[in-house]
Amino acid sequence: MKPGQGKRRRESTLEARAVKWARARGVQVGKLTECVGLPDRIFFAPGGRPLVLEFKDPGGRGEPSPTQVWHVVRLKKHGYAARFIDSWETFLELMARKGVK
User: What angle do CA 95, 82, 46 make, to 5 degrees?
Assistant: First the structure.
């Protein structure tokens, strides 16, 4: 296994699980790829305020890059619900706050 590959697999597993769960409940989900450092996904949950998430390695082992931090801070300044996420429980809590269960 290449260095960092195990970490990336755990991160991508969390992301894939979240996307599948949200789509099964009618939430439209987009992948953000336009610019380096943008968060991974945007979830169009009820309420008209999208949730923008950057998935990190579960357990707090994944560190965001300075560019990722810059994008999340900037999105928050513009009123978006943007954050880093590293656990399934936190994802479910955020979606519940949006009215998705």
Answer: 40
Look at the chain and report how many structural domains it folds into: 1
pLDDT, averaged in runs of 10, over the chain (101 residues): 56 96 97 92 91 88 90 96 94 94 88
Domain that holds residue 21: 5-97
Domain containing residue 68: CATH number:
3.40.1350.10
Please report the DSSP string for the chain in residue order: --TTHHHHHHHHHHHHHHHHHHHHTT-EEEE--SSTT--SEEEE-TTS--EEEEE--TTTTPPPPHHHHHHHHHHHHTT-EEEEE--HHHHHHHHHHTT--
